[in-house]
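user: Please supply your own:

assistant:
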Amino acid sequence: MANNEKNTEAVYDAKSLGTPRVLVLGLQHLFAMFGATVLVPALTGLNVSTTLLFAGLGTLLFHLITGRKVPAFLGSSFAFLGAYGLVTASGQAIPLTYSSFGVAVAGLMYLVLALLFKLFGAKKVMRFFPPIVTGPVIICIGLTLSGTAIGSCSANWLVAVVAILVVVICNIWGKGMVKIVPILLGVVASYAVAMIVDPAARLKVAQTVAEAKWIGLPVVWKETGLSIFGEGFDGGMLLTAIITILPISLATIVEHIGDMCAISSTVGKNFVADPGLHRTLMGDGIATTMAALFGAPANTTYGENTGVLALSKVYDPKVIRLAAVFAIVLSFCPKFAALIVAMPAATMGGVSLVLYGMISAVGVRNVVENQVDFTKSRNVLIAAVIMVLAIGLKYGTGDVGGIVFSIGSVHITLTGLAVGALVGIFMNAVLPGKDYEFGTNEQGDTSVNFGTRAK
């Protein structure tokens, strides 16, 4: 953990800064989370306005549950991208509404883990989710999404390459805020190039934005997870979505722990102890469930905003809450949402190529920084089985992408990622030679983190 004295020397609070500066700082946090947050609905087909609304509401709810102590912003999670675009055993596409309900159930897993953390402590619980399981699962999340990125890039490789180059250049050579928001800058630059070189994309943007209203409600009932319960409800499809998506929460829970450690180190306060992981997990989980039920992506604590904290030296959570209010206000502008929806496919493909690859790279980092011993046969076997099942079932079973089984008249599909995660957890639990203990390696424990520039 960072030295508390060192951090408090340059700390400012909202009261001492005054209203004008606080407003600017709130806008800066909005700008930092903006690119990644709106990119998730652009990639998945979810509603942009709903996403902004529940990013703001989720952040405020998180602050309420954690006693208004943690300066964290909750934006869209990229780890759950694999939860959308699922299919049933017959190859039928699962609607976003069913996937959203599956994500909502995954959010409830946070509450289960929060209770276990409260009752037994982090060390005992995390024994079941060591890096030899979470690392390969995270690697496979990125790899199973890679085909989608390449397909989008093929719409216009010039536009896609612009996005990739801008992201890489800003990430490596950028300074200050430029280094914190490379994804947003990549989207803007690629979008601009597409408007110049692609007349069809330019026409689509013009028509879509022109037809949108300036003010409107950000929630559409038929796009929510709650709308599935009615005429035409399909229980098998819902079970498939839930069972497939639930294992993804294992990776995002570890991500959450990494983010809390990163924020604690930045601010110089131990948020893992106070308000405690049980409270921060509860806040994140309830925010995710609430967002998903109303048709928004899963929420996650944002490393981009942690970067802004380090840059500004202003750690007052009130500034983060102000950014949340700005996001809520912006969600009532459909014309802005239309601008995101009309984003060229190649632009999305370019940034996705980088993001999906970075998700897999985070999994590799998790394994390396925790010094997983691959001279042990148990570790080699666990990693091998997870990755072959996740990737093999994804690409080796046609449109189904997993294992199909029936319970009575209900047909359920387990995707390769779900099968790999479940088998990996089981193998780690039963095979002898477990050597991971949470809390002994701070760098390793925080390495599973889709935070700054990897959301």
Remarks:
- The first helix runs from residue 4 to 8.
- The chain has a mean pLDDT of 82.
- The two ends are 23 Å apart (CA to CA).
- The chain has 21 helices and four strands.
